[in-house]
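Model it.
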Amino acid sequence: MPHAMSTERPAPVPVTVLTGFLGAGKTTVLNRLLRRPQLTRTAVLVNEVGAIPIDHHLVKDVPGGTVVLGSGCVCCTVSGDLVRALAELHGQAARGEVPGFDRVLVETTGLADPTGVLATLVQHPLIARAYRPSAVVTVVDGEVGVATLARHREAVAQVALADRVLVSKIDRDGVDPAAVEAVVRGLNRSATVVRVAGGDVEPDVLLAEAAVERQVAAAIDGDPHAHEHDHGHDGEHEHVHGDVRTFSVVLDQPVRMGPLGLWLSLMTQMHGGALLRVKGLVAVEGEEAPVVVHAVQHVVYPARQLEAWPDGDHRTRLVFIARGLGTGTIASLRHSLAETLGQPLR
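Modeled.
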């Protein structure tokens, strides 16, 4: 009797987004990592802008099973071309035209807001079946990063959206990595910050999954390196750096995911450009383990349930990173969330 064919769909391939402002050192980091055996079975897409593509020629040929498309790149914009590049990559691997791969790295242009890449991975129906976001890794220039973050909104968004931040060029004379790190932590308290000399980092810094549960705990518990720390109304923690605010809420009682999901969808549509990130651990009514929620600007990721709570605190904890939202708007957000869930926030 013939065996029935399996209809189980392969798990989506994790995608790491490597971003950072112009000249921060993304390509140097990428070149160093591609020589490591841990990057075998990795596909690399280089996203560039301009009529004459240059960046992909800087990505060196690598040995082993690493896939670097098009002799070094796939030049793609954030919308249609990225979809085509990912779809073609998936099809080529299925047909055996390129080696099989276990992960994808997308290096964005230095002027890019990584939201577009994340939105494509989550919202495009065909792409979302084959790929999923893994982590956003942002490279910040150790020499000029403080000035860059003071002048360029794109650089601020890249740091605020990051799961990990690499402070580069720390081996150069006169570089003060602590000064850069202070600015980075003021913008994003929950990201892991790694110092990088000569573009040399351990592969896990790029490849590891974003640990949203650890990030939430770090942001709620507070960070001694935060730029400014205020206690607002109702006792919530709020951190301010320029026009970027990080605030958090805690709920003592379990919640229903339906109302919370609807509230997240509405708020991200209303304030998507300003509400840079929302992430949290949710205690759901009738469930023993928490649910992770995650949104980037107007993009709400599918919720996923953990196997167990990561620590002894089993309350719902949500962290918001916003840019340009005033105190009154934040108070309104908190009030509407409390009304939606039918319980006070802390």
